[in-house]
Amino acid sequence: MADTYTPPVHGTGVKATIQRIGGHLAGMIMPNIGAFIAWGLITALFIPTGWLPNESFAAMVEPIIKVLLPVLIAYTGGRMVHGQRGAVVGAVAAMGVVVGADIPMFLGAMIVGPLAALILKYVDKFTEARTRSGFEMLVDNFSAGIVGGAMAVAGVWGIGPVVQVITNVAGDAVDWLVGNGLLPVASALIEPAKVLFLNNAVNHGVLGPLGVAEAAETGRSILFMLESNPGPGLGLLLAYLLFGPRPLRPSTPAAMIIHFFGGIHEIYFPYVLMKPRLILAVIAGGAAGVFTFMVTGSGLVATPSPGSIFAYAAVTPRGGWLGMILGIAIATAVTFAVAALLMGFGRGEKEPPAGAGPPAESATPAADEPRDAAAREDSPEHRTAAKEA
Q: Would you put residue 181 in left (φ > 0), alpha (ψ -120 to 50) or beta?
């Protein structure tokens, strides 16, 4: 499944290992991109700051991102490892990490789904040769139930708290960078945290309160713009549209609309997880945008929620439009350029599929040349010419 989105990886070095990890992440995330788009549309339309606010419809937003999407990811990851049985066990195990943390547990689902399926795979190998005829279904069902339940409990006790600690550490690091005036460097922490779906924790848990305090004194704050800038995501999706894997290109226009106009940044995170080296592109774009905001003295009066261009326009103070637009545009351009470079400007996508043989026409003349020569010698025209000679 991962091979659908990433080329085959050869070798055993660090680069090959990272590429394989990215391929497996893509195999878990990208088949479910339709669910991400559905959630993005619902969020952009029906949340209180959306286009068509509706309290009843907005009630779907949190269950989808906290329960449905992690379970789908774990289900797909388990299926990659051990077929349908692995998929079911992975989905059950994902419920442990879902209830074990207050944030969307996409990273936890990527870990616990394949891990639970792998454990069940080894359990099946152990019981297969030791199960008497007629008891196969009983043993299979109970082994899957025991493994799934045990992994769910382990998710509550283990993975959830670990991810929470990672969130707290990232927040403290961003706070230190902000306090020391190293705002562009903060993108090196903010962008990876965003890709791991910790964007709300960083924005509303760290940058938001600091920005409110600064805005109360000066009337605006650049801190509102560090995480919410839609430029890096737009640049990345543009690079995917032009140079990314061909099966993914049709999905990027809808993702760009949801991201840039709807403000749902989560829609582009799977594209980075698919090719982990592209984290360098969004870091570069984020830093370039922050630097531009600093040079132009830009700032917002409140947190743009969601982080769309419309929300940015709504909270931009008078006289700050030029700096705001320039920062988003430069972040988009830098991210696009770096991502295109890292993807080789799509050169790999133009190559013929691996293992494809040469065209039939190229092999036919050489193989048939002796036969054709013999046929010409036996032809009436050849015999007539010989007699005349």
A: left
